[in-house]
Amino acid sequence: MASKKKRGPDLDDLLDRPWCYYCERDFEDVRVLISHQKAKHFKCPKCTRRLNTAGGLSVHLNQVHKDTLDEVEGAVVSRRDPTLEIFAMEGIPDDILQAHRQRVILKFHEEQAAHQALTGNPPSGGGATSHASKKLKQETPQEIKQRLAERIAESKARRAAQLEAQKGGSDVTASQEISQSQEQFHATSAAYIQPPYPGSQVSPPQPGFAQPHYSYSQPPTVLQPFTQTPPPQPVFGPPGQQYTAPGQTYNTQPYPGPATPFQQPFQTGPSRFGAGSPASVNPYQAPQQRQSPVENGNTPRQTNLTPAPGLPPRPAFGTPSVNAFEMQQLHHGHMPGQNSVPSHHVQQTPAQTPNPEMQKYLSEAHQVPANTMSPSGLASGTVQHGETATTSAVQEAPRADKKAQNKRTKMVYPDDEVSPEEKLSELPKYAFHRPAVETTTGDIEAKQTNPVDATAD
Amino acid sequence: MPKFSDASNSPQRELANPPTDAISSIKFSPHSDSRLLVASWDKHVYLYDTSQDDENQLIKKFEHRAPVLDVCFGKDDNEAFSGGLDMDVRKIDLTTGEQTVLSTHDKAVKALVYSTQHSMLISGSWDSSIHIHHPDNKPDYPSTLPLPSKVYSLSLAPTRLVISMASRALYIYDLYSLNTLAASAESEPPNTLNAEPWQRRESALKHLTRTTACMPSDEGYATSSIEGRIAVDWFDSSEESQARKYAFKCHRQNGGKDPETGEEIDVVYPVNALAFHPTLGSMASGGGDGQVLLWDPLSKRRTKAYAPLPASVAAVEFNRAGNLLAIAISSGFEDGKVDMVEGSARVFVRELAENEAKLKKK
């Protein structure tokens, strides 16, 4: 195995970096931060002294220059309060510390997402995914062909069973008898929530795709028995179209995570895939195959997935399953040319999944962790909302600070309507009452007053 | 050597025989370098020659019927105008002391400016109007220009008149057209003009306007408010020019303790006085905190902070040559205190060193 390539600092490193409260810059170590603060924020504007804290600078200004420190220089607007005693990382208010932490986390994930989108590489630490794909890769064409044959056979059997069941009038039970592990297609939605876990991949749903692989939101390692009662969900499509399929009932979900972003596609599924497609076929479900390579090998399948390149055209009754190569391609964002699936979900193949650690941080940040997994409109819509919420929370903090600062000001003359002179003029000692008889153009002489000689005073 | 000097290394003299009550206005003569008029609430206008020694500084004082709110020089060093709570606009012959009433407002006269260029006197009053006089005309029929609000401050630039009013209103008139209009309209009173301002603006500051001062360069003006803030605006209404305008906080004291709650508070003082240096373009501000600060309005920097004075700064004024800065202080002025502290009204004249008021180097 090739050695793991180090791709930039990891989140812990970033979070450990000391940073400057006044300008949000981060530094290699605390000593650099201290010298930065002395040079940028605690430098006396009038001489060359550099002080250690804003308070020190204030005292210095007061004593040496007879001046006051109005605000900390070079600081972002909301953090100019010179009364805060901050030295390196000491004294930073808790809310601001938290806000900074969140910002670092956010930025880290954004960068990772950008990097993954660019390279199509899976995130570091996504061990499960890479193992699975490697195993799949080892599948030889012979194996694929064999699996295909099995599928075909099974499909035939299923069809026969269906016919039989219809004749017998008990469709569901009949088909269940025939297939080893069947699920009712119309059971959808909440039951099929696809948790965001590493390596969740998107594969193209096809018209006529009759093989869903559901994962149930169940605790890991609990096998899902097929006898489970169908979830109380609306039935998509007419009852006559009920599909049953030998799906795998596994539920290997290492990371049952927030699922909301994924529910939407399920509900809108039926109309998208046409009559031949089961109501609940969903692009997010196909990848389940990858989670259980063993079962993939053992269980006969019937699927109408995209034909593998180089294989003969599929017969009318069934199609070959997605082979390893194609899977691989899908995983790396290269859609097979013949893949004519119209769904926009398919184009999100380079699925990027945050690793568990990231998820942990993300949930700490109260953020929907889906953005890195699927840029789908629906999912990312939710994510963006989460992001804005977080950022605005970050911005809110300084704003609140500012408000608090405003509260602490006291205006010496708070009257916004009347000037001080007007108030003064109303004092009795200044009161002037113009004689009623006097007129503007009256006798000037009468209004003359004698000059008072300064020396005579 | 420190960049900032304090009171000790720049000669700052205090005028002898200051007014006995709060000072409302000080004006240097535009015709000579050392003559200074001071208007006071003690109902007198004082004329000083600041170049003289103590006994001879006060040349004359002129008694009025009511507190005087503003004063200004006229066409020469012998002519002055005053206005105050008695609502009259007066002409004072500084040699003989003879006073002549030019017009009477409906309320107290708050501000006076005289344009030597146009021989025009403009008086602003709390009756929400200005009167425009041509004192040299015989007879002179002042014209009245109604305004939307009480006039608080008048300020002249070479070609503009800036009127700042209550309710943050601010009108800018073109001095030439205003003069022409007033001159042509002169007739028997009442003589009401209907002149549209050249620009109708609102104060850039959120709070009550305290005073305005125009740049001698005719580029713009500064406004100050009761809430420790100064705004610098530009006459040019083009977008790029307007983008240059700014406002800043000043005359505040941080970290004081609220006497009631014990909470830490910032005390915000009104900025009572603004003046531009006649040649260098720097600006002086005086606040209720007793501080006089010098600013570079172009680089938006404070260039100097003088040692705090013991009372609120009521007025600051540069002389014609720009080598003197007069500072008037009086206590209890802005906070509506009834009792004037005896002897708190003082006038300082500061001789500016050559580079003291100059702008920051670019």
TrEMBL record, chain A:
<dbReference type="InterPro" id="IPR013087">
    <property type="entry name" value="Znf_C2H2_type"/>
</dbReference>
<feature type="domain" description="C2H2-type">
    <location>
        <begin position="42"/>
        <end position="65"/>
    </location>
</feature>
<dbReference type="GO" id="GO:0008270">
    <property type="term" value="F:zinc ion binding"/>
</dbReference>
<feature type="compositionally biased region" description="Polar residues">
    <location>
        <begin position="243"/>
        <end position="254"/>
    </location>
</feature>
<feature type="region of interest" description="Disordered">
    <location>
        <begin position="377"/>
        <end position="457"/>
    </location>
</feature>
<dbReference type="GO" id="GO:0005634">
    <property type="term" value="C:nucleus"/>
</dbReference>
<keyword id="KW-0479">Metal-binding</keyword>
<feature type="region of interest" description="Disordered">
    <location>
        <begin position="155"/>
        <end position="314"/>
    </location>
</feature>
<feature type="compositionally biased region" description="Polar residues">
    <location>
        <begin position="261"/>
        <end position="270"/>
    </location>
</feature>
<feature type="compositionally biased region" description="Low complexity">
    <location>
        <begin position="218"/>
        <end position="227"/>
    </location>
</feature>
<protein>
    <recommendedName>
        <fullName>C2H2-type domain-containing protein</fullName>
    </recommendedName>
</protein>
<feature type="compositionally biased region" description="Polar residues">
    <location>
        <begin position="337"/>
        <end position="355"/>
    </location>
</feature>
<feature type="compositionally biased region" description="Pro residues">
    <location>
        <begin position="228"/>
        <end position="237"/>
    </location>
</feature>
<feature type="region of interest" description="Disordered">
    <location>
        <begin position="117"/>
        <end position="143"/>
    </location>
</feature>
<keyword id="KW-0539">Nucleus</keyword>
<feature type="domain" description="BED-type">
    <location>
        <begin position="13"/>
        <end position="72"/>
    </location>
</feature>
<dbReference type="InterPro" id="IPR003656">
    <property type="entry name" value="Znf_BED"/>
</dbReference>
<feature type="compositionally biased region" description="Polar residues">
    <location>
        <begin position="438"/>
        <end position="457"/>
    </location>
</feature>
<feature type="compositionally biased region" description="Polar residues">
    <location>
        <begin position="172"/>
        <end position="187"/>
    </location>
</feature>
<feature type="region of interest" description="Disordered">
    <location>
        <begin position="333"/>
        <end position="355"/>
    </location>
</feature>
<dbReference type="GO" id="GO:0003677">
    <property type="term" value="F:DNA binding"/>
</dbReference>
<keyword id="KW-0862">Zinc</keyword>
TrEMBL record, chain B:
<feature type="compositionally biased region" description="Polar residues">
    <location>
        <begin position="1"/>
        <end position="12"/>
    </location>
</feature>
<dbReference type="InterPro" id="IPR015943">
    <property type="entry name" value="WD40/YVTN_repeat-like_dom_sf"/>
</dbReference>
<dbReference type="InterPro" id="IPR036322">
    <property type="entry name" value="WD40_repeat_dom_sf"/>
</dbReference>
<keyword id="KW-0677">Repeat</keyword>
<feature type="region of interest" description="Disordered">
    <location>
        <begin position="1"/>
        <end position="24"/>
    </location>
</feature>
<dbReference type="Pfam" id="PF00400">
    <property type="entry name" value="WD40"/>
</dbReference>
<dbReference type="InterPro" id="IPR001680">
    <property type="entry name" value="WD40_rpt"/>
</dbReference>
<feature type="repeat" description="WD">
    <location>
        <begin position="102"/>
        <end position="132"/>
    </location>
</feature>
<feature type="repeat" description="WD">
    <location>
        <begin position="271"/>
        <end position="305"/>
    </location>
</feature>
<keyword id="KW-0853">WD repeat</keyword>
<protein>
    <submittedName>
        <fullName>WD40 repeat-like protein</fullName>
    </submittedName>
</protein>
